[in-house]
Amino acid sequence: MLPAFGQIMSGDTTSMITYAILGLSLLAMIWFMTNRGRANLAKARAEAEPKIAGEDQMSGGAINPEQFDEPDEDALEEMAALLGEEE
User: What is the DSSP letter of 12?
Assistant: First the structure.
């Protein structure tokens, strides 16, 4: 005897739904990985570009800029030696 029509369709329907979900999951993973890869490549290219003067932001500065207001004796002696005023 042949199995009832409902019994055949229930097994096929379940497997078709499972394959559809797996296929959609695969497509979603491929899409996500492709977009993430493109974003990473764009970021790496932007970081590897040559720097153009004036466009980059430089942080920092002297911690204590007042220390340069008055030169110390060693600095004065070095400047005198460079200028030839060693007297």
Answer: H
